[in-house]
Design a protein that fits this description.
By secondary structure, this protein is an all-alpha fold. Helices cover 76% and strands 0% of the residues. The model has no long low-confidence stretch (mean pLDDT 88).
Length: 219
């Protein structure tokens, strides 16, 4: 019985991580409301889920706001840019759909083109904020890297999009899931994303203690 109440008990560890994921998801949702902070919040969410929840390094709120502040400028610009692109694509899809009634051929052709463009945008969006959380790049380099990785590792890209879509379906039928969905989505996708990132990590000689750097992502 005493082992059950031990804080090192795996059950307590799991419950603690679930609570962390719940709180960080709520903070993430709250920070996404102003729109301009979607980028920094998404970057911080990925950084925190991998470093704290998976690698058990640091404290969840400290690491989240550390990443949020560090990447605020670039992530805000990219986040707003992505919102604008998705709004434009939304209008384009609505326009194409409206043409399907009077001119089904033209409408269907445009719809196919816009769906293809939307898929490409959604694909590189899966990568852009995780990349920013890990690598020091200019916005131009960031966009190029996201496009390259999303196409180069298309199998992981499709799987991550599927995870996102499945989460949306669950939210539709069970609304409270939204309060922990962001963390769960990022956690599941990170297992694929980290496999991709390892291919682009520079070779480092020696351990973190020898180099004086906390290279937790190499573990």
């Amino acid at each position: 019985m005493s082992n059950f109440f031990n804080m090192d008990n795996p059950l307590f560890s799991i419950l603690s991580k679930i609570c962390d994921m719940l709180f960080i998801s709520i903070i993430y949702i709250f920070l996404c409301i102003p729109i301009i902070t979607i980028g920094p919040a998404s970057t911080a969410l990925y950084y925190t889920m991998v470093k704290v929840v998976r690698k058990e390094r640091g404290y969840i709120f400290r690491e989240f706001f550390k990443s949020f502040k560090l990447n605020f400028k670039r992530a805000s610009i990219v986040g707003v840019l992505m919102v604008i692109i998705f709004v434009i694509l939304g209008f384009d899809l609505a326009y194409a759909y409206g043409l399907t009634a009077p001119d089904s051929t033209k409408g269907s052709l445009l719809m196919g083109v816009f769906i293809g463009i939307t898929f490409l945008v959604v694909s590189f969006t899966q990568y852009i904020f995780p990349i920013l959380s890990r690598f020091d790049m200019t916005i131009k380099q960031l966009i190029k890297a996201a496009i390259y990785m999303s196409m180069r590792h298309i199998h992981f890209t499709v799987l991550m999009i599927t995870v996102n879509a499945l989460a949306l379906v669950i939210i539709y039928f069970f609304n409270p899931f939204i309060f922990i969905a962001p963390a769960i989505i990022v956690l599941v996708n990170s297992f694929m994303m980290e496999q991709v990132f390892k291919k682009y990590m520079p070779e480092v000689e020696g351990t973190g203690e020898e180099t004086g750097r906390d290279e937790w992502y190499l573990e």
